[in-house]
Write a structure and sequence with these properties.
By secondary structure, the chain is α/β, with parallel strands linked by helices. It is built from seven helices and ten strands. 29% of the residues lie in helices and 21% in strands. Strand 6, helix 6 and strand 7 form a beta-alpha-beta unit. The radius of gyration is 19 Å and the shape is elongated.
Length: 230
């Protein structure tokens, strides 16, 4: 008789403040057998685990898996598939496994790539987390949308037309802005929106930085989000 498969959880842990984790997430974290801790580079450590460590039982198994930020798309796919196989092996042992993700599991998250390779026979539960822009808006009392207003969220890359995004949107969130910060800075200033933005780096962490004067900033941390509200 085949052994019962473990359950797979995708748990959003927010962006820094341990008190912003949902009650459901804290309960599941205390119940699981294995916690998957994604790393961009082996040995780098896990920001997600630092957020949730007070909610985890001491005997939980920590499984560090490397998801390198490399340009080769096919190589990234191989890493994702191999890591999903490692997770699947734990599930086949009947272990309940939680994949931790910064912010929300369904918003620009590595978890979604792994989920593609998990067997349909495995029960999956995804637990929402607070995104960086939701957290920033709440901390600074910035309404993201009012009345009939719209909001657009953009993950900045080299192809992003920042000028067009600014022109076409009243409320705009730019994520992953460290990739091409000079381009973003130039567009914000030249479109006359330097008074309409705020940037928060490492939101909710001890080294949090709030930036409103973009003209005097040369670069930003990887964990930085910009909100523009005209």
């Amino acid at each position: 008789m085949a052994s019962k498969l473990g359950k797979f959880y995708g748990i959003g842990v927010g962006v820094g403040d341990p008190e912003n984790i949902t009650v459901k997430a804290t309960k599941r974290l205390h119940e699981v057998d294995v916690i998957v801790l994604p790393e961009a580079k082996s040995g780098e450590g896990s920001t997600a685990f630092n957020i949730v460590k007070e909610y985890v039982k001491p005997e939980v198994e920590q499984l560090f898996l490397e998801f390198p930020m490399i340009k080769d798309v096919e190589a990234r796919k191989v890493f994702r598939k191999n890591n999903a196989d490692v997770i699947s092996a734990e599930l086949e042992k009947g272990k309940n496994v939680a994949f931790l993700t910064i912010g929300d599991p369904m918003t620009y998250s590595t978890y979604t790539y792994v989920l593609e390779h998990i067997s349909d026979d495995v029960e999956v539960e995804t637990i929402a987390g607070i995104t960086s822009f939701n957290s920033i808006a709440a901390r600074l009392n910035i309404p993201l949308m009012i009345g009939d207003e719209d909001l657009k969220v953009v993950s900045v890359n080299r192809k992003t037309d920042v000028y067009k995004e600014i022109e076409n949107n009243q409320n705009l969130v730019l994520m992953k802005i460290s990739r091409d910060f000079e381009k973003i800075k130039k567009a914000i200033i030249e479109t006359g929106n330097k008074e309409n933005i705020v940037i928060v780096s490492n939101c909710g962490k001890e080294n949090e930085e709030i930036i409103t004067d973009i003209e005097n900033v040369e670069s930003v941390h990887y964990f930085s989000t910009l909100i523009l509200k005209k």
